[in-house]
């Protein structure tokens, strides 16, 4: 188990699937407000999307770490990362809404950046064009590498020295 002063990480297990779904669903809440579906239809859609994402991540990134984030004994989010020989990649970082804006994301990303610095590797991530987290990443020194109109590829390089 990796520990920081405020947040612990432990590998996700099948017993965490319902919690991981809850985290995923919370990240899509705003997006689905305008959908003309009832709550049952939204839940069905979210389950399908969650399962598709889960299957995709595990197929594309079989060696990745899939962690549950714990703070004060409570599961608060998820962090999925992939360590490759040429990069460290943040696949997904998501917190339950009540834990956002409290510095947890910043702390986790900085820990990952410290690891990248020690290895001399860049950190890369994709963020949706409408996601507010772009501001956090920019503040931490990530720069936009590519924008396909849906996702923005951002990168932080330890040789830039900005943290």
UniProtKB/TrEMBL annotation:
Pfam families in alphabetical order: Acetyltransf_1
One GO MF term attached to the UniProt entry: protein-N-terminal-alanine acetyltransferase activity
InterPro entries for this protein: Acyl_CoA_acyltransferase, GNAT_dom, MshD_Acetyltransferase
UniProt name for this protein: N-acetyltransferase GCN5
Organism from which the protein derives: Capsulimonas corticalis
Organism phylogeny: Bacteria, Bacillati, Armatimonadota, Armatimonadia, Capsulimonadales
